[in-house]
User: Fold this.
Amino acid sequence: MKAASPFSFPVSPALAAKLVKLGLARDTDLILHLPLRWEDETRLTPIRDLLPGQSAQVQAVVREASVAYRPRRMLTVAVADAGGVLGIRFLNFYPNHLKLFQPGESFRFSGEVRGGFLGLEMVHPRFVKADDATPLPTQLTPVYPTTAGLGQATLRKLVARALAAPITDTLPANWLAELGLPELEASIRVLHQPPPDCVLAELESRQHPAWQRLAFDELLAQQLSLATARRQRQRLCTAPLPAQQQLTAAFIHTLPFALTAAQARTWQEISADLAQPHPMRRLLQGDVGSGKTVVAALACLQAIENGFQAAFMAPTEILAEQHYRKLAPVLSALGVRCAWVSGSQRKSERTAAWQAIAAGDIDLAFGTHALFQEAGSFARLGLAVVDEQHRFGVGQRLALMQKGTEPHQLMMSATPIPRTLAMSFFADLDVSVIDELPPGRTPVVTKLVSAARRDDVLARVTAACLGGGQAYWVCPLIEESEKLQLQTAQDTYTALAEQLPELRIGLVHGRLKPDEKQAVMAAFQAHEIDLLVATTVIEVGVDVPNAALMVIEHAERMGLAQLHQLRGRVGRGSRESVCVLLYQTPVSELARARLKVIFELTDGFEIARQDLLLRGPGEFLGSRQSGLPMLRFADLERDLALLERARDYAQRCLEAHPAIAARHVERWLGNRAGLSQT
Ligand code: ADP
Ligand code: MG
Assistant:
């Protein structure tokens, strides 16, 4: 029996399997599979007019072909037209190549012209058998993104078949007129089959109206699907948790400081969400040290004063435990029953904690992300706080949202999400931003120091510590191997202990047992340790105001978000704070760009924006494996204006033209539109 083709024309199962790898499973996918670039094969250049460095197509007759063995095995073919001779070389070739290039046969070769030692030549040109009678293409030739074993010729044929049918526009003509965008059909055809008078450079520039139309459509589809998700969520019901001003007011009263205006504002936004009978999905953003924890604690208390439980989750144990150690004593004093659940806890302790949670004897549970996966066993979970949401990835966010009964959710991120990303990939969430740091912070001075001057840095560390301060020494990041990472941390610790005998030095890394980790952190907090050697486990959340100096080794290997987070560990007290970035030469171009950004900027949002520019949204969000469709045509930085318009039109569409919305999402997301079915 023949497998049915997923297309409107027959395609063998083997070919269909290759196409699926490229995400091509419908005619529409082929139509939207746009070229990476184009080749101009509409013209022939006489050989005598060729210039080195130029891309050209020639039509010429084979004079002779032979296999040479020096300097290495290669096929050389001498070809000529009426005015000149050109050398063709193939370093990889099959025996039948030699047979193909019979003297007297005429071919077209296209490729880059180079000045070889025997005159002009082309290496590995594309070629077809053709003579004066063979018509030249009348259009530029598209070059498509492809995968192993799938040739351009096959792809071109498939796309051409898919293009045989007319393409209906999903958007009404009057909208296009308002937007100043061309029709979809014309846009798609010009990109797949550009007319010969089309200027290549213009077509390649993504400012071309055809590209702009596709970028707009893609952004609109994204906005529609996320806005739909948001609307569907607003139709879900959950227990409203209105402000009672009891535990929350009491907690604010115990704080040794007043909330910043930004904290007060974001807290009001969250408090109002919790009072709604629909599950909250709010992202609380704020730079490192902006005081998100207090706001999250207030949210938990509002849930608890309504008789519900709250869960406070962090991505790492060290961070989850720090939240627990910091908040539990204060909250317990208010009568809140807190528990700590962790994967490395003794089994009996953990079981006991879960039993208490399931029995409703616990109001607030702290733990790692794993906590949530067992969340079924809460008696009355009203709110889940997810700290450092950024690190869970977008995929997990969607997974959390798809759970059966929906508690309210507050997500927190210290890696600021640039506005463009918040407006696009996070459009299904509400966002609150703490855009101000608590008063009294001292700005951190950043220094870039070559590793060759490590001795100067050691002297600085000694001086700072003997002067009553404390310091962090962050070990190089070794992503490839956890074992090597551990080894490096231990070696660094041993070396520093030897080089700095006057100092009390501690070591903390991810492999320590939780109680060992806690003991080291407590000793550092109590100033029984001067210098804390650490792996990047201290990247998030650690808070010791007396530590005003940080040295980061091999800073050139670290990402911007990581450097910014690390640097945020200092500058928390009244001491003049310094962050020394040690780098090892030579530094790659990308690393140099990163170091420049971290050296020049302190504002987390601006750093994140630069990071996005350097890495692109896929890397930035870490969502390549998350299944969230990435943008193919739109560039958030370049197309900000389009993004804003797409957002407005998405609202208009959903409010007044649901049929247009459905048609548009179907075309762009097709079976991936599952995203909107949350
Ligand atoms: P982050 O936003 O990075 O999670 P934290 O919540 O850990 O920041 O807060 C950083 C530090 O600032 C903590 O020591 C916290 O007690 C303190 N803090 C929070 N809010 C204020 C405030 N309004 N005034 C002074 N200090 C504050
Ligand atoms: Mg925090």
Summary: The chain has four domains: 13-38+143-205, 43-136, 247-434, 444-601.
